[in-house]
Amino acid sequence: MTEATTEMYVLHVNGETREVRDAAPGESLLFVLRERLGLMGAKGACEQGECGSCSVLVDESLVCSCLVLAASAVGRRIVTVEGIAPPGAPTDVQQAFVDAGAVQCGFCTPGLVMATHSLLERVAEPTELEIREELSGNICRCTGYGRIIDAVQRVAVARRGGGA
Amino acid sequence: MTATTVTAGTVRGGLGQSVVRPDGTAKVQGSFQFSSDYTADDALWGATLRSPHPFARIVRLDVSAALRVPGVAAVITAADVPGVPTYGLISQDQPVFASDVVRFVGEPVAAVAADHPATCRQALQAIVVEYEVLEPLTDPERAVDGSVPPIHPDGNVIRHQRIVRGDQTIEGPVTVEGTYELGRQDQAFLGLEAALAVPDHDGGGVELVVATQWLHEDQKQIAACLALPAEKVRLALGGVGGAFGAREDISLQVHTCLLALRTGRPVRIAYDRHESFLGHVHRHPCTVWMRHHADHDGRIRRIEARFVFDGGAYASTSSAVLINGITHTQGPYACENATVDGWAVRTNNLPSGAMRGFGVVQACFAHESQMDKLAAACGLEPLEVRLRNAMHTGDRLITGQVVENVAPVERIIHEVAALPLPDEPVGGHDGDILRLPGGVGRTTDAAHVRRGIGYAVSIKNLMYSEGFDDYSTARVRLVDGTVHVKFATVEVGQGFVTLAQQIARTELGIEDVVLDRIDTGVGSAGSTSASRQTWMSGGAVLGACRLVRDRLLALVADREGMDAAALTIDGAEIVDSGGLLRIPVAVAAAGVDIDETFEHHHPATEDLDELGQGNCHTAFAFCAHRAVVDVDTELGLVKVVQIATSQDVGRVLNPLSVLGQVEGGIAQGLGLAVMEELLQDGGIVKNPTFTDYLLPTFLDMPPVVVSLVEEPEPHSPLGAKGVGEPPTISSTPAVVAAIRDAVGRELPRVPVRPADICL
Fold it and tell me: Does the interface ipTM go beyond 0.95?
């Protein structure tokens, strides 16, 4: 590496404190999560905030991690798809994606899972149009979106039933 | 669709059920390893230097400064390719690296390996290439007419083929004609090209983890370029983030392996989106002229057509795409007489190759546009003219081939017409702006919105054609009550991994089915393309399971002193025809070790002769679409309100998987109709980003209503037809027909742009 590197900074990821050493200052949060912290769940597919595949939560806001400078996320709470449920114990959203056929190639899926959790936190029972609008920042090339909408609706219905 | 009920005795997770994906949990949890997620200790990053010019001579290439960049481990060029300097699926005409001439914007010239992607970028900038810029050939017609000197030693015509059948003198009495054009569509899979190559310790071989569509074909081409025997180039499938045809050709495979062998270290290459747009083949831009001669009652008497497919700089699969296009000129309609002339030509545009629909998308947009013109000329409804001409099993195609498959063309037309129309009023409910064409941020006035309805119907060949034996292999082992299935069938998201388990469960009556790693450690499966894997690899898994079953039944028969011919597997039990024996397969299979491998081949096909005659295709499937659109006639904005489809699927093996193919394929057809085009101007690519290449989002894709027509296909091992491509093919012309219905314009080109509607 010929570029100057930072000595060290600390990120709070999935409830853990993670040190990032010898990083180039220009590295995106997506790159640092994947290549320096080994969290491969967030995916890069456009690197310009158009497709949502790299979606993570930063201080509970849904962001495209490709557009966030990693060093700017110091002191913030970062949650990735790996941080929302332990391996083998998927969340209701994740399970609904599997059951409803919302997953084909699966490359957009981690981003959509994060976006869906964010949506249902804010709007418990979104209309179909609200789902479409809220998730329109996440592109899926395989499914045509129909089964994803079904998955989101299944979760909303199940949560309402559970809370009644 | 109705839910499949599981009857008592049926093994859970078998055929016909909406079984969920075995990789689903890993995919939703982010732990599924895509090819871009593979790394290794001490791995280097690789990157590729690409031509900025569509056509230029390389006058000087100096990599010495790049080699001096700290952190750079290797820089390679054409001079470093030890084996065959070129590759290609059908003819090997594409250089691993350009050495003397570059022929498209994005052609690889050199590659580097370094410790960080940023170092790679610095090294690429340090490579000195002096070009003598040449006049690019960008108009395919100039390749057809021979007015431009060859831009490649193989010439500017990749293939020319005619189809001449029947009475060539028939004219009218009704004639309709048009010239139709399709822009360049990109597959735009989300999982960008990525690979990890790990050299063997002795440097004499390499293992490549890559997202591809056909491991064995990649292996063959890579080994030839590396001058290694095939067994020294071992491929394993890295998780594939979609494919849609773009991964049939070599992209980064040879470069990654070369860098790993040169440096003696693992090397990763990962394209970004811009590089991906330049680095893989696209759907062929195409111009189709058609003239239909018909009786006054709308019956087709003769079709004339001329196709020009822009193959771009290298051949890829252009010759096969051409044959697919011209042999589907008639669409799903009976026609005795035809005069077709087809060209696939070389230009200095981006190379074209496979994309979902493979030449038939182009033919279908033309023939369906023509059918609507014919309906209008004869005073018929669009569906009536299609019903009057509908093809049937036993009809002869314009190639002379008899359609031997189930051909429920009339039925799918009737079924699509009977599906409910949207209850949404024109312009949407309650003036919600999201329901208006253009949605938020646009200025559609509901008063300018007009609704249109359009139809289209298609025929698509399944499997490979023209004498190619695209067989598939599967190995099935029954070990102590567990079934292990191994195949090289590439899973791109379509769900073959689910289907393979379903087949094994149903055939062997055992729920516990383990899938081995997908790699070159078993025979070829052919490509995951041409809607062929359910039929071909499904047939291979089925065949291997039956061999295992027969041996198991023989063992049980021996053990019980019975005749093996009297034993069958019924659900999860082995039973005999006399009703004496009934034991769970899992019990019978305890301690057993049976290992069988099976190759499934389809019947041989033929080349076309000079007049385009011959049994060149393996099988056919049919599909119908209806589109409902709202169009802002003032601003030229389109909102697709609903797509209805009826599809000939043979037999539904997994309802959820089929629905996913149907809806996903329609989204890509909608994209071609109104959004997607990779633009080139003088060979320069204008919009290679997701900001500028527009893909359908949640807001662009309407609800889909589906009718699956199940008439089991007797030639298919499982009775099922491939379902992947048809949804993409006729959805495009259906959407355009609906826009025409709303605005009354000819709209002969896709994607339809706002200016085409309102200016």
Answer: yes
